[in-house]
Design goal:
By secondary structure, the protein is an alpha/beta fold. It has 2 domains: 172 residues, Alpha/beta knot, CATH 3.40.1280; 48 residues, tRNA(m1g37)methyltransferase, domain 2 (Trp Operon Repressor, Chain A). Helix content is 30%, strand content 21%. The strands form 4 sheets. The chain has a 5-stranded parallel beta sheet, sandwiched between helices. Strands 3-4-7 form a 3-stranded mixed beta sheet, with no helix packed on it. The longest helix is centred in the first third of the chain and has 18 residues. The protein starts with a strand and ends with a strand. The chain binds adenine. Adenine binds next to β5.
Amino acid sequence: MKFDIITIFPQIFNSYFNESILKRAQKKKKIKIKIHDLRKFTTDKHKTIDDKPYGGGVGMIMKVEPVYKALQSLKKTKKQSFDKAQDRKNKKTKTILFTPTGKTFNQSIARRLSKYDSITMICPRYEGHDARIEKLVDEKISIGDYVLTGGEIPAMIVTDAITRLLPGVLGKDSSSQEESFSKPNYLEYSQYTRPEEFQGMKVPKILLSGNHAKIQEWKNKNSKIKK
Ligand code: ADE
């Protein structure tokens, strides 16, 4: 799976993508992440990526041309990276724009997107983006009903949620099969590790019993359906 992220703050991603499971997934070549600096796709001296809104209003709006140029350039490199035309046809790609007006991201969207070969994400900043950018993408995604300063955190969230679903990324593939949201609205049971007792709080006895059938029964009883 290849992730291409278009942003004006490329440095933001360094720390998160270079730790733990995401770092390992890249090392094992399960994923490839490429960050693209939107300013490289500007043509003026000041590398302008935003401008005032037509009709007035507060704040600055992300311009359409640099985003268009960035997407065109990505399309070209993608074409070159697959040798045969047939190869290109078989590759499933998706372009996403992050905006609070998009579809709310959840585990089922993560699962659907995990079947793609390549995902391009656009991270707007400022007060908003030129609406024509929406015509250049396949899907608009929000990560929740609140407003962030930009699409970088949403891009990290979506990359993270998809990556851990890919075969061979987690220690055991089953780790992502019995967890919260692995079924609609399913919330996993509580888990415990040593010590058996901490400041008077005890681990449920049944989990120490070694009786697998009884333990499974307890897990079933203690998982919930989210309302
Ligand atoms: N940009 C600003 N807020 C956002 C949100 N909630 N989801 C996705 N992109 C955003």
